[in-house]
Amino acid sequence: MTLKLHHLNASRSQRIVWLLEELGVKHELVHHSRDPETNLAPPALLNIHPMGKSPLLEHDNIVIAETGAISEYLLAKFDPDHKLHPKPESPDFPRFLEWLHATEGAVFLPGLMGFYLFRSQLQDHPLAAAMAAERDKAMQVIERHLSAHPYFAGEQFSAADCLMGFQLVSAELQGQLKQLPAAAAWLAKVRARPAYQRMLQAGI
Ligand SMILES: N[C@@H](CCC(=O)N[C@@H](CS)C(=O)NCC(=O)O)C(=O)O
Predict the structure, then answer these.
(1) Which of 1, 89, 93, 177 has the greatest count of CB atoms below 10 A from its CB?
(2) Which of 43, 27, 33 is nearest to 10 (CA)?
(3) Does the Cβ of 67 fall within 6 Å of ligand 1?
(4) What pTM was computed for the model?
(5) What distance in angstroms lies between residue 166's CA and the mean position of ligand 1's atoms?
(6) Are 115 and 171 in contact (CB under 8 A)?
(7) How far is the CA of 89 from the centre of ligand 1 (A)?
(8) Which residue puts its alpha carbon closest to atom 6 of ligand 1?
């Protein structure tokens, strides 16, 4: 069995590096570097998958893209005891799925759009204000959720936490967590996990 994760520096694929560390699955981490001018992925990733983006997972003879799909694939293959994903009959299951996919959905996209607008020097465009308002709304939803639950899926740590981590680290970098004590406390708690530390040591 060969398991290979194609990771791009300073990117959301660190979510999958963390998940692999939590799963404790033996894997190879292949590092790719962004173009310093364009910030885009190198053409080498296009040889692996036609979208040429990261994360990309290779497992034996298959290649799979998309954070949510990669996560569900890894959990189905390597988490038979459901340590990192609640069973469908668990009351936490709907919330788990929601947050697992929010990481690339409505909760994540406004921040991403804001980042692109900033990089294009369009921070004064009306769309930038609209995206900032949407991003703030998403962070308030996260804050309310983490005020009521210790983890994203509910009572137990899960893969949804690994995926949402990138959003909270980005929010912290932008100074947003100063007004969001439950989100800040969650981040401090998960950072203490050995698998999170191993993810940092892997050179993300
Ligand atoms: N929806 C995809 C997004 C993948 C994506 O856009 N990855 C970024 C890393 S943050 C990337 O590869 N950017 C470089 C590029 O687009 O060339 C996922 O969930 O994996």
Answers:
(1) 177
(2) 33
(3) yes
(4) 0.97
(5) 13
(6) no
(7) 32
(8) 53
pLDDT tens-place string over residues 45-92: 999 999 999 999 999 999 999 999 999 999 999 999 999 999 999 999
φ and ψ at residue 122, rounded to 5 degrees: -110, 30
From the candidate CATH numbers 3.40.50.1580, 1.20.1050.10, 3.90.230.10, 3.40.50.20, the one assigned to the domain spanning 93-193: 1.20.1050.10
Asked whether 117 lines ligand 1 (CB < 6 A), one says: no
Question: In this model, does residue 204 exceed pLDDT 90?
Answer: no
Q: Is 72 in the pocket of ligand 1 (CB under 6 A)?
A: no
12 touches ligand 1 (CB under 6 Å): yes
What gap in Å lies between CA 38 and CA 80, rounded to an integer? Answer: 41
